[in-house]
């Protein structure tokens, strides 16, 4: 697996926009959606994805001044299976008859999901769905011997970047299906615990399984849990939760535009420190390239970072930078409808929005404040 992150490169070095900021939909469209994670249904009982926060932050710092193109390739290589014997899962949980419809109807899965208790420090975001999540920032998975959200949460807590998890029962093939030799093998039942770097919600629980030759993979008893806290950012106030809205700051009382531009990160997990690093790097850049006197360089003292969604799917972690701090009451941007190049309408929304203010200097208007 990839061990460090590459990220979408969208430069906004000298954004001297005369109007209050708006999400840069042109750049967002050009960046496209990050690839959907493929969680294996054959071949392994666990997958580890590591996140190197320091390496990711240092790429952000370099990118702010260099803006390299991001190179990301999708691996869509699909091959027929080999009939290799797969891990046995939990034999007592294979329904009779051994069919996808019996699996979907089995009370035992619904009962486990609806009676599960929520681990402390987490919020249960949905219960007993028949689909798994495509959330932001795939962080690997493990299989469990029992349907135990607390055990799953403890594993999430040990994974750098894990913000949420999805636990469910999955009907998987006992042999890696092959179109000629074993197109529809007997099933095994696995309990999967999948880790994500952004929130799992009913809206992004949209993976209802798949066909492997004539074998149908299905999911039942799917529950989602999101950690109630995010990592703080060094040198900033505690994360300030803004819910589903982004800051939409007016000019300040001197008439100055405090918006300094944005970055978009597309390889999860969600990490406020990426935006903090971009903010500091932007300040350093501006201080090293001051405008002609009497103007003074703008430094980044405040940022708002959130997940931007397009029709419910994660586009990436948006990071807006400001020279002054803005109160929660300015979090009024809840996204918008945009007409795309094909003439269809895309609905952009915001979720998991947080603001951070430089803890030693939140930024103040330069010079005496003249209200207009
Ligand atoms: C939640 O996330 C925070 C920040 O990453 C972490 O310190 C904590 O261990 C996680 N789990 C719980 C139960 O709070
Ligand atoms: C906070 O602001 C001060 C003053 O501009 C600056 O020196 C410091 O580097 C900032 N902190 C961070 C983490 O960027």
Layout of secondary structure:
Layout: H1 25-31, E1 46-48, H2 53-66, H3 100-105, H4 107-115, E2 122-129, E3 138-144, H5 149-157, E4 164-173, E5 187-196, E6 210-212, E7 215-227, E8 240-243, E9 246-247, E10 259-265, H6 272-288, E11 302-310, E12 313-322, E13 331-333, E14 336-339, E15 345-357
Antiparallel strand pairs: 1-3, 2-7, 3-5, 4-5, 4-7, 6-7, 8-15, 9-13, 10-12, 11-12, 11-15, 14-15
Helix pairs in contact: 2-6
This protein binds 2-acetamido-2-deoxy-beta-D-glucopyranose (2 copies).
The site of one 2-acetamido-2-deoxy-beta-D-glucopyranose has 6 residues, from loops.
Keywords: Signal
Signal peptide: 1-16
Protein name: Apple domain-containing protein
Model description:
- With 372 residues, this protein is an alpha+beta fold.
- The chain has 2 domains: 1-37 and 51-77 and 230-366, no CATH class; 79-227, no CATH class.
- The protein contains 6 helices and 15 strands.
- It has helices spanning 25-31, 53-66, 100-105, 107-115, 149-157, 272-288; strands at 46-48, 122-129, 138-144, 164-173, 187-196, 210-212, 215-227, 240-243, 246-247, 259-265, 302-310, 313-322, 331-333, 336-339, 345-357.
- The strands form 3 sheets. Strands 1, 2, 3, 4, 5, 6 and 7 form a 7-stranded antiparallel β-sheet that branches. Strands 8, 10, 11, 12, 14 and 15 form a 6-stranded antiparallel β-sheet that branches. Strands 9-13 form a two-stranded antiparallel ribbon.
- Strand 11 and strand 12 (313-322) form a beta hairpin.
- Helix 2 (53-66) runs parallel beside helix 6 (272-288).
- The longest helix has 17 residues, at 272-288.
- The chain starts with 24 loop residues before the first helix and ends in a 15-residue tail after the last strand.
- Residues 1-18 and 68-77 have low confidence and may be disordered.
- Bound molecules: 2-acetamido-2-deoxy-beta-D-glucopyranose (2 copies).
- One 2-acetamido-2-deoxy-beta-D-glucopyranose is lined by residues 121, 157, 227, 229-231.
- It comes from Cryomyces minteri.
- This is Apple domain-containing protein.
């Amino acid at each position: 697996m990839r061990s460090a992150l590459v990220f979408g490169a969208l430069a906004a070095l000298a954004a001297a926009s005369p109007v209050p900021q708006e999400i840069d939909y042109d750049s967002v469209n050009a960046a496209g959606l990050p690839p959907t994670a493929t969680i294996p249904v054959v071949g392994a009982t666990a997958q580890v994805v590591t996140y190197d926060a320091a390496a990711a932050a240092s790429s952000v710092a370099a990118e702010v001044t260099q803006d390299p193109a991001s190179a990301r390739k999708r691996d869509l290589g699909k091959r027929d299976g080999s009939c290799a014997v797969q891990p046995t899962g939990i034999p007592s949980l294979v329904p009779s008859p051994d069919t996808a419809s019996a699996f979907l109807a089995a009370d035992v899965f619904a009962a486990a999901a609806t009676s599960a208790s929520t681990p402390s420090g987490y919020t249960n975001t949905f219960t007993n769905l028949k689909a798994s999540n495509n959330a932001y920032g795939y962080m690997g998975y493990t299989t469990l011997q029992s349907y135990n959200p607390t055990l799953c949460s403890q594993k999430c807590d040990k994974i750098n970047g894990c913000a949420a998890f999805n636990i469910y029962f999955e009907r998987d093939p006992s042999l890696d299906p092959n179109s000629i030799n074993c197109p529809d093998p007997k099933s095994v039942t696995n309990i999967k615990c999948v880790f994500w770097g952004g929130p799992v919600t009913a809206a992004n629980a949209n993976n209802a399984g798949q066909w492997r030759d004539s074998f149908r993979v299905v999911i039942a008893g799917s529950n989602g849990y999101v950690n109630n806290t995010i990592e703080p950012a060094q040198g900033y106030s505690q994360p300030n939760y803004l819910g589903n809205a982004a800051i939409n700051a007016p000019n300040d009382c001197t008439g100055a535009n405090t918006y300094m531009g944005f970055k978009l990160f597309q390889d999860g997990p969600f990490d406020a420190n990426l935006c903090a690093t971009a903010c500091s790097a932007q300040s350093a850049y501006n201080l090293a390239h001051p405008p002609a006197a009497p103007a003074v360089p703008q430094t980044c003292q405040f940022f708002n970072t959130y997940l931007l969604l397009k029709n419910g799917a994660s586009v990436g972690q948006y990071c807006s930078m400001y020279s002054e701090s803005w109160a929660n009451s300015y979090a009024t941007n809840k996204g918008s409808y945009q007409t795309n190049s094909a003439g269809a309408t895309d609905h952009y929304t915001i979720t998991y929005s947080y603001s951070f203010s430089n803890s030693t200097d939140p930024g103040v208007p330069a010079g005496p404040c003249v209200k207009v």
